[in-house]
Amino acid sequence: MIYTYDKGFNDFEKHIDSDTGFLHINGVISRSGNQKYYGIELGDEENPTKLFNVYRPKEEVLKQESLDTFVNSPICDNHPSEFVTIDNAKELVKGSVSSISTYNKDGIDYVKARMTITDKKLINKIMGGKIEISAGYSQDLIKEKGEFKGEQYDFKQTNIKINHVALVDKGRCEGNCKITADNNSIINKSKKNNKGKSMPTILLDGVSHEVTDCVAKGFANLTSRIKSLDEDMKEKDEDLKEKDMELEKEKGEKAKMQEDMEEEKKKTSDSTIDALVSQKVELIKTADTLKVEVKTSDSILDMKRAIIAGSSKIDLTDKTPEFIDGVYQTVVDSKITKVKAVTDSQEKAFDGFDGKQQGISKFQDMAKEEL
After folding, report:
1. Which of 22, 67, 137, 347 has a CA between 20 and 30 Å from the CA of residue 311?
2. Helix count (H) and strand count (E) of the chain?
3. Within this chain, do residues 133 and 207 fall inside the same structural domain, yes or no?
């Protein structure tokens, strides 16, 4: 990028006050019309590298409330990372604006200022060719499409309030906002290649673009943030994968436990059912031996109640299951023993007789009835 300066910029030295060393000089510091901004400068993080046209209406640029904020505004060497305040003024302020005037040229309105530069290093930079100007300001940005002098715009600025005026390597006014050596010069479009200056560049889609320091810094910050976010996302993805693996492992372990529990439950149920069936079979045999009727549909406890009631006169009203179990075992053991004794006796008595088995059965029945 080759910079062009007003003819006579080497005459700036004559504007230095011999008593103070301050530089008193004029400069065009603002204009109306369309200006290009990157999305990052407009707070559009979804389209940070896209260029947008922003319209600065004449009625906003020349509004008295806005113009008043230029007067006594501080001058800085490049745009600071934050607005100038009482807390950072000592470090940032390199001069001030003393007065302003406005002009119109080719349908564009310009604001021209009388400036005093009080910082020796900045004066030397100006003497060396750093003469473009860029205002730092607050605004109300309205998303509005329109057209100015045949060029479409995407946003409109209103309520412009100046915070500072910065001397920059490259401004936004296409070289029109800058220091002018001639008091009567407003915009001097004659171009003279005095010296070259390398500007910051950013790489977009493989193409290198020269930009202002402000945009370069903003782009660098955004790139750093994106890189940091990418790293965070990568780390979170790894954590999620690890957690997913842990969850899958836990899921598998729970499924295995559930399967084992179901199998154990099945085994327990089967063994319990088998035990209940065996108990009922034994109770039915005992009831048959003692000639007591029981219902196979009854519970084991109720079947025991029935056998006890059919074999004794013991009152089981309001008795606990444990009591019933004890009485049952005592009654059954006693009755079965007597039946067996009678049966053995009758078998011996009928030895050698025909129809022995019929006789035994007969006496067994009699014995049971006696019991």
Report:
1. 347
2. 8, 13
3. no
Q: What mean pLDDT value characterizes the chain? A: 79
Alpha helices (runs of H) in the chain, residue ranges in sequence order: 58-61, 64-68, 89-92, 120-127, 213-289, 300-311, 321-349, 356-370
Same domain? 303 vs 247: no
Span between the terminal Cα atoms of the chain, in Å: 128
Tell me the Ramachandran region of residue 129: left when phi exceeds 0, alpha when psi lies from -120 to 50, beta otherwise.
left
Residue with tokens 């056998």: 307
Q: Is 98 helix (H, G, I), strand (E, B) or coil?
A: strand
Shared-domain flag, residues 162 and 114 = yes
Note if the pTM is more than 0.70. Answer: no
Q: In this predicted model, what pLDDT tens digit does every residue of 90-106 receive, in sequence order?
A: 999 999 999 999 999 98
Expressed as residue numbers, the domain containing 296 is 290-370
Give which of 334, 342, 340, 328 is closest to 294, Cα–Cα. Answer: 328
| The residue to which tokens 């606990």 are assigned | 320
Residues paired with 117 in a beta bridge: 23, 95
Same domain flag for 134 and 82: yes
Residues 30 and 106 in one domain: yes
Considering its fold, how many domains does the chain have in total?
Answer: 3
Q: Are 66 and 31 in contact (CB under 8 A)?
A: no
